[in-house]
């Protein structure tokens, strides 16, 4: 950080649970359940392909270096994956069109190299976009980003940085403010704040952040382990995995877990 004092991140004392009106909690629970069901129904089979541990770790370390909140890290991973899936879908669509129309195929190796060479730039753009969504007090300037990229050996201009952010936004139809698992966790902690819990919700919040980090870093093995346990089969088929994945999203009943204090 070049000797500068890093701003202090939010502490446990900054969080307070059990203070939101009961009607608001019920409305938010229902809204989150509906969003989750819609997200599961629209999820592509390639979701999860760009959550390799080293990619997620890079995002986490970069967010920590820039003193961003944990929510920004999770949001950046979600944006990056959705963007990369869109890129993969576009390539497949172009290939299918060319085969059908029997046109001259593109140089796929060159296209792959182009995507590879811009991957770090896209990743950084996703972190920037996520930080802007969080309304964080610490703004990541373009100069900071360009200096970081230059330290890694990537030379870009401010114009290229802005174009990269715009490419991500256009590819996702400007729909990047999607709830992360943290939104569901914090909402359930709010419910615990009302329903009563032997452990303070603020302490549980810190534990949940650690567990969420692990789930993001070890996405594939965690999911596979949960899948095998849920269907009681050590070697689940791809069809079983897809069916189970879609089944977990139909949870509009989640608001029933909320029992406000009398």
Automatic annotation (TrEMBL):
Q: Which InterPro entries match?
A: Cyclin-like_sf (IPR036915)
State the species of origin.
Rousettus aegyptiacus (Egyptian fruit bat)
Any single GO BP term: reciprocal meiotic recombination
GO CC terms of this entry? site of double-strand break
Q: What is this protein called?
A: Cyclin N-terminal domain containing 1
Q: Which residues form a coiled coil?
A: none
């Amino acid at each position: 950080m070049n000797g500068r004092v890093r701003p202090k991140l939010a502490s446990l004392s900054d969080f307070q649970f059990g203070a939101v009106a009961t009607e608001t909690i019920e409305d938010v629970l229902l809204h989150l359940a509906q969003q989750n069901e819609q997200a599961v129904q629209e999820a592509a089979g390639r979701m999860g392909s760009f959550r390799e541990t080293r990619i997620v770790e890079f995002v986490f370390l970069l967010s920590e270096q820039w003193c961003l909140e944990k929510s920004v890290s999770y949001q950046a991973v979600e944006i990056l994956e959705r963007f990369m899936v869109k890129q993969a879908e576009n390539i497949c669509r172009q290939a299918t069109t060319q085969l059908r129309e029997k046109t001259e195929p593109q140089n796929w190796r060159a296209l792959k190299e182009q995507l590879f060479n811009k991957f770090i730039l896209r990743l950084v753009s996703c972190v920037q976009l996520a930080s802007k969504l969080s309304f964080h007090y610490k703004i990541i300037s373009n100069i900071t980003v360009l200096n970081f990229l230059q330290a890694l050996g990537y030379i870009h201009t401010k114009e290229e940085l802005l174009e990269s952010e715009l490419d991500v936004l256009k590819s996702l139809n400007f729909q990047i403010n999607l709830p992360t698992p943290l939104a569901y966790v914090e909402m359930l902690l709010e419910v615990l704040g009302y329903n009563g819990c032997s452990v303070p919700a603020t302490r549980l919040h810190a534990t949940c952040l650690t567990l969420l980090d692990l789930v993001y870093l070890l996405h594939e093995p965690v999911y596979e382990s949960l899948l095998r346990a849920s269907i009681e089969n050590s070697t689940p088929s791809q069809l079983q995995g897809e069916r189970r994945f879609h089944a977990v999203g139909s949870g509009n009943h989640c608001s029933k877990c909320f029992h406000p204090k009398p």
